[in-house]
Amino acid sequence: MSEFNVALGRYVIMPDHLHFFVRGDQSFVLGTWVKGLKRAILEAFPGQSKASFWQPGFFDHLLRNDESYAQKWEYVRQNPVRAGLVKFAEDWPHQSEIVYIDRA
Questions:
Q1: Per-residue pLDDT tens digits for 10-33
Q2: How many CB atoms lie within 10 A of CB 35?
Q3: Minimal CA–CA distance to 6: which of 21, 73, 60?
Q4: What letter would DSSP give residue 3?
Q5: 37, 90, 91, 93 - which has most CB atoms within 10 Å?
């Protein structure tokens, strides 16, 4: 992913939405990256209409200096528990970390 100036860290895939922790360099444009990600995932589902697969836009949250990456990750990681899909977050199979992203 270094050729695209982006690091995809931790993620959780829910039945109706996705959570990604992403970090890019100064030239990184999140909206452009999300658009490409949506396109790439849609291509894995032939015959699926874009309109019925993805909602328009996306929600992002920039971690501020006083926010903890670990706390935000724990909140996201608990999503399957809050949704009643598993009893313990670690039991949710659709989560992982691709690269380690620190706060530096």
A1: 999 999 889 999 988 888 888 888
A2: 14
A3: 21
A4: G
A5: 37
State the greatest distance between any 2 C-alpha atoms of the chain, in Å, as a whole number.
44
DSSP letter at 93 equals S
- Mean per-residue pLDDT for 39-64? 81
C-alpha torsion sign, points 70, 37, 80, 52 = positive
How many other C-beta atoms are found inside a 10 Å radius of the C-beta of residue 53? 11
With beta carbons less than 8 A apart as the criterion, state whether 48 and 42 touch.
Answer: yes
Which residue is listed with tokens 């030239």?
A: 27
- Residue 90 CA to residue 87 CA, distance in Å, equals 9
Q: What is the rounded distance in angstroms from the CA atom of residue 102 to the CA atom of residue 104? A: 6
Q: How sure is the predictor about 66, in pLDDT bands with cuts at 50, 70 and 90?
A: low
Tokens of 65: 């200096």
| pTM of the complete model | 0.80
Q: Amino acid letter at 24?
A: G
Comparing C-alpha atoms, which of 71, 63, 69 is closest to residue 102?
69
